[in-house]
Amino acid sequence: MSEFPTGLLFDDALAIVTQVASAHRLASESLALGRCHGRVLAQDVHAPIALPSFDNSAMDGFAFRHADLQGERATLRLAGEQFAGNALGLVLGIGECVRITTGAPLPAGADSVVIKENASLSGDLVSLPGDTAAGANVRRAGEDVRVGDHVLRSGQRLTPARVSLAASLGLSSLQVSRRPTVAVFTTGDELVEPGMTPQPGQIFDSNRELLMGLLRAEGLEPTAWPRLPDDPRQVEIALRDAGCAFDLIITCGGVSAGEKDHIPAVLAQFGQTHFWKVRMKPGMPLLLGSLDQARLLGLPGNPVSVLATWLTLGRALVDGLQGRSEPRTVWRARLTAPIDKTHPRREFIRARLQAGDDGSLLVEPNAATGSHRLRAAADSDALIVVVEGPQRLAQGDVVQVLPFAVG
Ligand SMILES: Nc1nc2c(c(=O)[nH]1)N[C@H]1C(S)=C(S)[C@@H](COP(=O)(O)OP(=O)(O)OC[C@H]3O[C@@H](n4cnc5c(N)ncnc54)[C@H](O)[C@@H]3O)O[C@H]1N2
Ligand code: MOO
Questions:
Q1: Which of 46, 104, 185, 393 is least enclosed, having the fewest CB within 10 Å?
Q2: Is residue 4 part of a domain?
Q3: Which value does ipTM take for this structure?
Q4: Peptide bond into 105 cis (omega under 30)
Q5: The domain spanning residue 168 has which CATH number?
Q6: Looking at the domain assignment, is residue 2 inside a domain?
Q7: Domain membership flag for residue 290
């Protein structure tokens, strides 16, 4: 008999995730700039102004016209001061210079700036080195952005630098995709809250913190629902409630073949199943469905399965719901130890990244197997992707890696 009861390849599951997400793309909303961090942009941005918006000095010093330099040192007459913040409209005459600070508008007629450390002032005469380059220390209007440039694109994630670019263009709000509201369920009679006393056969609920942390790392604000017992009626009521109120329901546990695994049946009866079970390890019993208004992602209960399914298909789902079109960076690294995989599923192996002496990225697979071994995940910062089928990888081979924390 087959080791796994599914024929669905990981890439086919990913294609279904993408298609379901795009069919349920969340609406956009206009937000004040300060609230746009981490959001997915839902508009194109064309620059309404140039950046810099005027010629200005890159340093504190003296602005002058380069044609006035002759010989080893030149002496120019100090004709005024132009500080940042208030354009005085100064015009430089021949043989003149102006004291200037960083960011101050360049007086008309000036084309170069010498830093104050290289100039000396005596009375109203400034001596400066004759070899100062033409255009030195001047930031030209439009050299970074020209009016009309297409600087930000719909589907990009708003990093601090992108929000800051919008601010520098004077934009006070942006159209962004609404973030999915997310309900998180952990399930199982065996679970107790850390701090309480487990009865024989019980364990502490660790997946809730894992999931809440993973979701928050994506900028989501998940709601942790009270833990669900292995009672079909209670599972049904809670999930159907959440289906009316949230964009996304994430459960963990109760999705494989056990007598107490009720979630697939609830979905089959009251919603729609998009797929159930994927040829991946860990994470094989993963379930994707729709229940009322919500998408439901049923993650397997084993902690490392939660991590692997979230980082691979869970993130793809929330990216798609928000219309993120910018792909996440694909990372590759060299193995520091061989990997010998004999099973047919795509595998995600816990691992640690490190910088090699030659500048290449190295990745050390963790020897622990078993999707219950959370400690190996805590000792890791990435997953190695080992594609379907038997794979014999040698030390030094290049593999794809999924860092836990970058996007
Ligand atoms: N006959 C079969 N048995 C199993 C199959 C299968 O296909 N046929 N799949 C196995 C695989 S692979 C996985 S993964 C697990 C997934 O099972 P479930 O998603 O139904 O999860 P549970 O059975 O409820 O729990 C699995 C495991 O994880 C522990 N767990 C659950 N929730 C938490 C939590 N919040 N914090 C910490 N640990 C949790 C739970 O106690 C179990 O040990 O099924 C295999 N079996
Ligand atoms: O596929 Mo399960 O997630 O390995 O233990």
A1: 46
A2: no
A3: 0.97
A4: no
A5: 3.90.105.10
A6: no
A7: yes
Q: Tell me what pLDDT residue 272 has.
A: 97
- Whether the CA torsion 282, 341, 257, 373 is positive or negative: it is negative
Q: Which atom of ligand 2 is nearest to the CA of 305?
A: 3
φ/ψ (deg, to 5) at 18: -65, -40
Before 52, cis peptide (omega within 30)? yes
What count of other Cβ atoms lies within 10 Å of the Cβ of residue 67?
A: 11
Report d(CA 42, CA 353) in Å as an integer. Answer: 34
Residue located nearest, by CA, to atom 32 of ligand 1: 301
Atom number in ligand 1 closest to CA 299 = 19
Choose the final residue of a domain: 271, 288, 321: 321
pTM of the predicted model as reported, rounded to 2 decimal places: 0.93
Give the burial class of 195: count Cβ atoms within 10 A of its Cβ; 0-12 exposed, 13-18 middle, 19 or more buried.
exposed
Domain termination site, one of 321, 352, 374: 321
User: Does residue 223 form part of some domain?
Assistant: yes
CATH of the domain at 358: 2.40.340.10
132 lines ligand 1 (CB under 6 A): no
CB 348 within 8 A of CB 384: yes
Considering only CA atoms, which residue is closest to atom 13 of ligand 1?
300
> What integer best gives the mean pLDDT of the chain?
96
By C-alpha distance, which of 404, 364, 358 is closest to 381?
A: 404
Give the rounded percent of residues in the chain with a pLDDT score beyond 70. Answer: 98
The rounded distance, in Å, linking the Cα atoms of 169 and 161 is 12
Rounded CA separation 341/281 (Å): 11
Q: How far apart are CA 392 and CA 340, in angstroms?
A: 5
Cβ 36 under 6 angstroms from ligand 1:
no
Q: What is the pLDDT of residue 7?
A: 82
Q: What is the pLDDT of residues 265-301, one digit of tens each?
A: 999 999 999 999 999 999 999 999 999 999 999 999 9
Domain span at residue 287?
10-26+179-321
Report the pLDDT value the prediction gives residue 261, as an integer from 0 to 100: 85
pLDDT (tens digit, 9 = 90+) per residue, 14-44? 999 999 999 999 999 999 999 999 999 999 9
The CB of 107 under 6 Å from ligand 1? The reply is no
> In this structure, what CATH number is given to the domain that contains residue 63?
2.170.190.11
Show the low-confidence residues of the chain (pLDDT under 50): 1-2
